[in-house]
Structures are given as C-alpha cells and as structure tokens.
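Hey Z.,

So I finally got round to the alpha-D-glucopyranose thing we talked about over coffee. Here's the setup:
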Amino acid sequence: MSIETPALHPDANWWRQAAVYQIYPRSFADANRDGLGDLPGVTSRMGYLSELGIDAIWLSPFYPSALADGGYDVDDHRNVDPRLGSLADFDAMVASAHAADIRIIVDIVPNHSSNRHVWFQEALASAPGSAARARYHFLDGLGDDGARPPSDWPSHFGGGAWTRVVEQAGPNAGKPGQWYLHLFAPEQPDFNWDHPEVRADFHTTLRFWADRGVDGFRVDVAHALVKDMSLPLRSKPALAVLVDDGTDPLFDRDAVHEVFAGWRAVLNEYNPPRTAVAEAWVPFTDRRLKYAQPTGLGQAFNFDLLQAPFVAAEFRAIVQKCLAEAAGSGASSTWVFSNHDVIRHPSRYALPDGSTEDDLEAWLLADGEAPAADLARGLRRARAATLFMLGLPGSAYLYQGEELGLFEVADLPQASLQDPTWFRTKHKVKGRDGCRVPLPWDATAENFGFGGTPWLPQPAWFADNAVTVQDGVAGSTLELYRVALRWRRKLQCDESLAWLSAPRDTLTHYRRPNGWEVLTNFGDAPTPLPAGVDSATVVLSSGAPWAAGACIPAETTLWLAP
Ligand code: GLC
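And the result:
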C-alpha cells in the first residue's frame, strides 16, 4: 500500500523535464541575520522563486554540521542545523514551496558522516574490532608499529585518505592505534556500506524526509558507497584514474546498485514515488546509465556540458549521446552548467579558449588576474548556452545566482577561504568558495540584502548584479531566465528533438516535436539565419532584443515559436 503524504499532486513524471534550482542554503538568504543563510530565508524568497518559474528546489545540506566541508559533513542526517532553523522551519518551507507549486529535493550524503556523528563518536570510544567500529572502515596500519596507513589512497581534497586515531579503549588506550578511511576530509569518515545497520539507517532517513513531504533526493557521491576492502588493499595512487569496468576498488562497483534497488523500493512506497538523482562522476559508458534506471535511483547527473568548451560540435555530440543514454536507461536526461563545486560558467567561458582544469585552478590562485578574463564574452556565451540547454528535453539543473549572471568571485581574501581543499592542499588549490558567496538581493541595502555580515565577503561588483537592478529590466539576465522558464513550459513536449541542417560548423539548430526551434551561433561573428527560417518567428534571444531580418549575433541563441 502506498503512503499518502503532503507531497505535491500525484504526477509521477513531474521530474522528467523539470527546471530544478539548486539552493546552497548558507548563501541564499539570511532571515535571522547571523551571516549564515537559513531555511526561513528560503521561505521568505518563495515569491521570487515562483516568479522565476522553476519547478523544484534542490537544497544542498542543511543538517547539523561543523561545516568542515560546507555541510557535506553531516552530524545527524535527520535534523536541521540550529543555525539554519528547526524541523518546524523545514516543514513551513515545504508547505510554502508546495503552495507555490514548487517541489523540494533534499541532498542525501550517504558515503560518509561527520566525525561528530554519534556512531563515529561511539566508534572512537570503542576498542579495535568492536561492533561500533564496524560501521566505518577502521584498519590497522602497515609496518611493525602500524605507523603507515593501510593503503596509498589519496583523499579528494588533498592529503591521504586515512587518519590514525589515538585509542580510547582496549589494551592500547592512550596510544596511536587504528586508521579510519575518509575519501574526503578527515572530518568525513566513510561508512561501511556492507554493514546492515548502515543500510537500514539510510532507509530510515529517506522515509523521515519523504514523510515530511520531500519530493525527491539528490544523492551525493553515489558511485562511491560500496568498496572492495578485501586485504591486502589494492594500490590506487590517484583517485581520478577510474578503471571503469567494475573492478575499481573505490568507485562504481556493481554491488552499489543493490543498495539503490533497496532505496527505490523505499521511494516507491510513496505516491507519487519519490525521485532521486545520482551524483556519480563516472565516464560515459553503459555503466553510467545504471544509476538512472527505474529500478535504481531513476535519474543521474551528467556533467558533460559543464566540462565542454563552448563549441557547436561538442555541444551537439554531447546532447546526442546523453539523449541516447537517457533513452537506454528509461530516465530523462539532465543538464547542468554550474553548481556549488565548480567555477561559475560565465567565468569559465570568459577564460581563453582551450583552458584546462589546471588552467582554471591557476587562474583562481592568481585571484582571477591572469590570464585576463573577457567577462562580457563569458556572460554572452553563458546566456547563449543556457538558452541552448533550456530548450532541450530533460531536466535543467540551475545553480542559485546564475539567473543573476554572477561570475566566480575569484579574489576572495585568503583569510576568508573555508573550502577544505585550500587547507588540505597547503594553499595550492583554492577550492570552491568563489561560487558560494551569498547572493546580492538589493544593490543598495546592507550586505546587498542577504542578511547579516555574510560568512564569505561579497565583492563591490555584486551591486551590478543584484536582483533589484535586474528586476523588470528587459534583457537583464534575470529577465532572460524568467522569460525562458515561462516559455519553456510551452516548449516541453515529447522528450525528443530533431537536428536541422546547420551547414556552418558554428551553428546548431534543433526542433522539438511541437515545432519550437532553437538556433545557436557559437561563432564569434554574426551569421545569417539558415534558409527557410522565418525571422518573424523569433520570440527570444539570449543577446540584444531581436530585430527582424537581422543576422544571428555572435555567441547567441534564438528561440523560434511554431
Ligand atoms: C559531493 C558534493 C561536494 C562534497 C563532496 C563530499 O561531490 O557535491 O560538495 O564536498 O560530495 O560530500
């Protein structure tokens, strides 16, 4: 029997072509003015979100946390950080979102807990070999005195993936003892997903939030849960090198899908079934689509567009590949250009063509001063890319602030940086703070209307991007998103598209089954409309307002109504 809950009306397919807006709660809106955004802040801006025209909010973690990794170090998966509100505030936020016809997706972080989680504290206080330790990965070190970590595995934020504890119990109390695994920061010990209590506890967590009316879940590092911990541990000196055939000791192992089949059964207890989207950084192969199967989580992110240069052939090839992948899994595709982990896309596109990931990191480390960024071009391309993407079949994932055309804050003062990457790499990699700076709502208000003194300082140029400056201003990035999201509801139909011939290698041109067309000029020179396209049908341009009979401006997308 399915459970009736206060979720939004029972359209089981609402997610397939939804526009999902990611809120990083600590940086969105600060109702109690303590400098950290909070849940009442989200509720207070529901009118803004509704006017924007989104279908769902994805909330990054709002759980109790010491913020060693911006909230992805979770003390208690079934509560709200008191600095961000209470469970009652959460319920009020859900009710207000649902009243505005907006669904709520919450972030679930199953790979690890924080080191303050009650289970980890229990594990630390217990002796090696105890039941409490078995919920995590504790091992003896190598060498006669156990002083070498159990393997050469690195962690994602720099440094090794093992930390040695001082024993609190047993014959070695007071002495250095076992090591525990953390693929991320030492404050994020990895759970042992072979342990039945860990599996059962996450079913409890899913039901806890689903019972409160949550419509879906975003699943953090979904591909990492199940690991091959058989001894001796295998060597893996670089995390990024993923042997993607199921044999990698840490990532994308076949058994992870048993976990998610169990989750799907829980999610399907509800009416409508709760959705889930996997964050699984695995390459494009048939393996990736398993996360998105209806017997699994149901949808998976692909980060292909996010990683691609602004090049017509690349965008087109990615769309073809991802739509085929989606068809193969039974899910709809996902599209994303920005999130809380990457440099905002107007800045990425502003850097010289051909810039690599390493170049981007070097640019951040140089406080955004070298190489010179062409910001006007970056924003022009970002707006064109967004309109290209919003016309596609599938779910569009947007990140807070991109509707304001925000750039990365590349020159945050070093003393303000909080990303563990900055510390764990000994200041060699700056990390992700530059895309997490609290939003500018009001150009003239204190702290740009965010609330109290923000936990990351806002640059003076945020005034130019504030909501008050763009609201109602035709052609502003905010109005472009609003209009596009409104039109998008009309444009959505069957999840397919047809490519129309676009002879120039700088152009893409596709048509949706209901006749809407999307034309993008990726080149840096204007180009005429393709033969047969009626200039009068253009209803939206990512660039200057459309003038009938014109060429498509450089780096611009047009939407054509049937
Ligand atoms: C995911 C999150 C990222 C976090 C990491 C560890 O990749 O998106 O922000 O640091 O998982 O939880």
